[in-house]
Amino acid sequence: MKKTKFDIVALFLLIGVFMAALDNGIISAALTTINQSFEITAQMGSWGITIYTLGMAVTTPIAGKLADMYGRKKVFIVEVILFGLGSLLVALSPNYTFFIIARLIQSFGGGGLFVIASSHIISTYKKERHGSMLGGLGAMNGIASVLGPNIGSLLINVSGTWHWLFLINVPVAIMIIIFMVIKMPETQEKVKSKIDKYAISVFSLSTLLMMFSINNIQTGHISESILSLSVIGLFILAIIGYGMMILIEYRNEATDVDSFLPFYLLRKPAFSITLMMGILSGMLIGSIIFIPSFVENVLHVSAANSGYWMTPLALASGVGASMGGKIVDKKGPIFALIMASIISIAGFGGLAFFIYEAIAFFTFSIIAGLGFGFTIGAPMTVLATRSADSSKNNSTVIGTLSVSRQVGITIAPTLFSTFIQFGYSHMGSKIKSNLDAAHYNMSDMPHSLVKSMQHGSGNMTEILDQVHHISNDSMKHAITKGIVDATHLAYMPVFVTAAIASIIIMLLVLIFKKEFNH
């Protein structure tokens, strides 16, 4: 019999999802410290984030399928064990190679927690509770994704070491395992006995190739790098791999193999559109990653405090996810997604065009947070399961949606970094126009400041500090305004893209409304 109330199992499902999502961003607060600890370059250090993203993307649909086959309780517990073990190994890493392997193990554990928790809720709780329950999971994902850097900074400040960012996961994992062994009921789908190992293998390899291809794009030489074998070559191989996977799934329809991604799902236009919306929602998450540097450079907040300016957005995203779940229960996922898109458009549009003061930032970041949480919570998950007409294979459906969102999260930072670099390249012309208006020339600027600015989007804190030491107030004001204009131009496309993504989501829902209702 399906449950109607929120119980201890749901609470620990939420904790598990929060823990895995948190570690997708918490490491960013300690990257410099970790790099110094292992004596590696910043470029090499970025693999601490990339490898976790890769592992999560590959593991999500696999864990969902295994949960359908062997039981969600069993696989959820195994996932938590892997995550806790990986966290311990990361903290105890004697060298960077060990660290990367440990992060991969950690990602293999974290990748399946959200999809298993979502499918367990759908199979265990009554339909009228799906919206609010899935909204709770969405809230955990939303809050964790934006609070990660803040919590990481706090833990480092309190403990004095980056190791506690990962050690703290171990007792939490043990607590989840104990309670789930005792309290969580076993649920699973009736699936065929043969696992789709070929499709899973091809998908995993193709996803890895796609992620490596995107990661190899160099924002400083974007046109040249895209045409290189390390980008376009890997991208073509990944596309070929996905094509092979679809062919394998098509042939599996006539066999007794339990398909990894059933071909009948791919035939449904509404389900394919939902996957497109998943990619776009991932780009919303990607834009939020840039908010600390945005407030540091546009609003001149110190680097030490910039992360804390994400707190209103984080709290609003939790409220938005919860609110979205309730609206799904009452009005359905289509109405909820339209409302979510309108709120997101207003919030991200405001961040793009109207931010020069702190009050405006907090106002629009709260609106953006509400829309963001609303979008990634229950509406899209419920729409995916309904558009797939899935009385079974819920884990497969939700897992595929999660992977599509992960693709958006992966693409967004590279795209946005290019935007930012382009914006900063106009700093000289912006300063010149402001100096001209104030009746000064570029040659009147201090030589040390000109030299610092020649590095494009270099250390903005250092540049602004040099500007503040200029004794001529009118010149100082003109240069500062030029820097602010260029910085706003650099970050504006990030939030414009997020607003456009929300517009496209809304249009897709409206255009394919009939297909979603079938």
Query: Please, how many helices?
Result: 27
Provide the number of structural domains.
3
CATH first level of the largest domain: which class? Mainly Alpha
What CATH architecture label of the largest domain applies?
Up-down Bundle
- The fourth-level CATH homologous superfamily of the largest domain is MFS general substrate transporter like domains
Content-based structural category: mainly alpha
Stretches where pLDDT is under 50 for at least 5 consecutive residues are none
Distance between the termini: 27 Å
Mind explaining what this structure looks like?
This protein has 518 residues and is mainly alpha-helical. It folds into three domains: 1-191, Up-down Bundle (Growth Hormone, Chain: A); 194-255; 264-518, Growth Hormone, Chain: A. The protein is 78% helix and 1% strand. The protein is built from 27 helices and two strands. It has helices at 8-22, 31-38, 42-45, 47-70, 72-91, 96-110, 113-124, 130-159, 164-167, 169-183, 197-215, 222-226, 229-252, 263-266, 269-288, 291-298, 303-306, 311-331, 333-353, 358-376, 378-387, 394-424, 427-437, 447-453, 460-468, 473-511, 513-517; strands spanning 194-195, 257-258. A two-stranded parallel ribbon has the order 1-2. Helix 7 (113-124) runs antiparallel to helix 8, helix 8 crosses helix 20 (358-376) and helix 19 packs across helix 21. The radius of gyration is 24 Å and the shape is globular.
